[in-house]
Amino acid sequence: MTFCTTCALPSRTQFASPELVEAIVEGGHDRADDPAWETSGAATVEDYALWCGHLCGLTCLRMALGPDAPSLFDLRDGALKYGAYTVDAQGDIHGLIYAPFAEYAREELGLDATVHRTLTVDEIAGLLDEGRTVMASVHYGIRRPERPAPGRGGHLVLLTARDGDRFHFHNPSGISPETRCAELPSAMFETFFAGRGVSLGPGHGAGPRA
Questions:
Q1: pTM for this entry
Q2: CA 6/CA 142 separation, integer angstroms
C-alpha cells in the first residue's frame, strides 16, 4: 500500500500485485498466477481469480475508508449480502449495483453514501469541494488518457480532490503509479465519464462495524 501525496488516501489496486496490473489487464496474464493473491482476503486462489476483475468499485470504497479498511474480499462478502453483486445461473458476475452498494456502505460501514444516477463534471467539482469523494463510472481506457476515449462507463475510479479544473483520482486498474494516482483536466475526464456514480462522505459513527 502507498499513500497519495495529493489527498493522503491509500492507493490500492483491485489486483493483489500492482506490478502485474498491466500484464493482467492488457497482456492476458493469468490472474491465478498472482503470487500475492492471499493478501486480498480471498479464501482460495480460484475465488480471487474469478472476482478480482469485478472489484474496481470495492477497491474505490476500500481506498475511501482509509488505511484501516477491511480486506477487499471482506468488503466483497459484505456487498454480496446486500445484493450489490449478483451471480447468474451461468456463473457470470453482475455489478456493482449502486443502490444496494450504497445501503451496504451506510448500514455496515457508517459512510454517507449517495447514488447519483445522473451526474455532471460540474457537480463532481461541487461534491469534491464539500469534502466528499466520488466513485465515478468511466471507461477503463482512462488509464491511457493520451489516446482518444474509446467509450464511457464500465469501470469505477475514485475522485478525491480537484485543483481548479483538474480532477485528481485513484484508478484501481492503473498500470503505473502515475495512472493509479492520476490527474486530468475535467474536460478530458468527461470524455471517459458515463455521467453517473456514488459520492461518499463520513457518516455518524463512520468506520467498519466490529
A1: 0.93
A2: 19
